[in-house]
Specification:
about 110 residues; 7-stranded mixed β-sheet; mainly beta; 4-stranded antiparallel β-sheet
Amino acid sequence: VQVVESGGGLVQPGGSLTLSCAASGFTFSNSAMSWYRQAPRKERELVALITGAGGFRNYADFVKGRFTISRDNAKNTVYLQMNDLKPDDTAVYYCYCNRVRYWGQGTQVTVSS
């Protein structure tokens, strides 16, 4: 199994970023996929989840209306579109493959002026 996140970086408050997670080594379309994040000195927390066919999506309350999770099963990739970013969104964002219980290495998102 291989899971690689990309798309993190430094953005100003109110800005946008799109994270990508490319996965391989398992049947991607059979697996729900999640994004988690972990800020310094805080526990890792669920941000969003999408089922294998993309028919169900769930979001943490703190990102509802700002973040959108999506997936392209033809590309074995899941995305996290993040809009209206706030300093509190600063964290390492991790991709998680629910079926095989596998974590990516994470990508840093920093929201600062």
